Amino acid sequence: MRSRVLLAATAAMILLLQPVPARASGQVATLSRTSVKPGETIRVDGEGWTPGQLLQFVTCGEGGLTGSAACDTRAALATPVRTDGTFVVDLQIGDPPRACPCVVHIGEVLGASGEDPVDLPIILAGHASGSLPAGATQVRTLELQDYYLSGRSSAAWFGAAEHLTLTFTVRNPTTSTLVSAVLQARLDGGGDDNVYFQQKVEDLKPGESRTFHVPVDIPMFAFGRYVAHADVSGLATVTLRYNAYPWGLFLINIGGLVLIAWGVWRRFRRRRVLRDLSPADAMLPAVVRLGSLGAFLVFDDAPGARGLRRHAGAQLSLDSLRTLIGDGQSHAHGASVLDLDALGHVLARRYPRGISLLEEEKE
Questions:
Q1: What is the pLDDT of residues 307-353, one digit of tens each?
Q2: CA–CA dist 120, 222 (Å, integer)
Q3: pLDDT tens track for 160-184
């Protein structure tokens, strides 16, 4: 009698593990082989899935009922669904950390469409076998209650790195306890959308809510849109966008361009003024060096004239200048080097505010 019961149980298990399609909400998936060793590769085919959806394939123990803690996540494989809703994957079978019955678990990575996962039974030769945990019922949905991104700073306007926090709260609306799940986080936009954060979620009881805090680091000088994704085993998914545009750097660069343009315009305008001067005016620049006196003749509109005047600490009036150089009457005796009457006439016309003579520093 006992041998008949054992034979019947074995036959039922063989029938269960035949490569027949597994269906859930119109989704179809099949295995090329149902009896393999860990490390071997089999082909998984599917149809009826959401086009473009990213699916994860992983080998799990305990019938896949106790969450990702019973799965060999190191051998997990992710691939997108084709535009016609099909996929073909060559999957390397993993070595689950829990005893069989074992399955190939196929589920959405982010759980955006809400489709149910598919568990395909498989026999792992040489792997430990056991019974399903008592009362193990898989939780297939979680409610997302609240989520937000915090930690923004004004320094990001100038290209500084941002250390943000994604905070979200989920609730277990089912009558079963979420025995084991994994919180995963990804960041798109920086050239890398791999999982950068993982955290185990244990024993989320029916009706219980739990809040999670996920770090989100935006690199220095980031530019463009970044998208932060976080999900709890694909059951509750949160997606937040962060726009990284360092407007402060843009304003600084624009200000620098305006200053450059103003300087070029001012230089061009000065050249036009000098071009339009008469020869008599053009012979008198803003600063004139008098070699015979070892001094400079600086006009009030010369650049830096005020600072030069402070540095010299003295001014010479026109009368003092006549005394040093000589007046027009001494010109016949060779004592005068300038016609000061003519110079005074030109200076008075061009520089009505007066002039100053600054002595040159002796070496």
A1: 666 666 656 666 666 655 655 454 444 444 455 566 666 666 666 66
A2: 43
A3: 788 889 999 988 887 777 877 888 8
pTM (whole model) above 0.70 = no
Do residues 32 and 42 make contact, with C-beta atoms less than 8 angstroms apart? yes
- Pairing between strand 195-204 and 178-188? antiparallel
State the average pLDDT over residues 290-303: 67
Distance CA 103, CA 96 (A): 10
The 77-80 sheet, strands edge to edge: 35-36, 118-124, 102-108, 54-60, 77-80
Q: CATH class for domain 143-245? A: mainly beta
What would the pLDDT profile of 119-129 be if each residue is shown by its tens digit? Answer: 889 999 999 88
CA gap 134, 136 in Å, rounded: 5
What residues have CB less than 8 Å from 314, skipping those under 6 apart? 358, 359
Helix/strand number for the chain, H first, E second? 6, 19
Rg (CA), the chain: 43
* Cβ(145)–Cβ(176) below 8 Å: no
Distance CA 328, CA 355 (A): 20
Consecutive H or E run containing 345: helix 340-350
User: Are residues 226 and 189 in contact, defined by beta-carbon separation less than 8 angstroms?
Assistant: yes
Confidence of residue 22 (pLDDT cuts 50, 70, 90): very low
- pLDDT of 17 reads 39
- Tell me the two tokens of residue 193: 């959308």
Fold of 2-124: Immunoglobulin-like (2.60.40)
CA quadruple 62, 67, 70, 74: dihedral positive or negative? positive
Task: Report the C-alpha gap between 58 and 291 in whole angstroms.
Answer: 92
End-to-end CA distance of the chain: 123
By C-alpha distance, which of 179, 107, 102, 105 is closest to 138?
Answer: 179
pLDDT at 86: 92
Residue 166 to residue 229: CA distance in whole angstroms: 9
Please state, in angstroms and rounded to a whole number, the distance separating the CA atoms of residues 4 and 9. Answer: 9
Q: How confident is the model at residue 152 (pLDDT cuts 50, 70, 90)?
A: confident
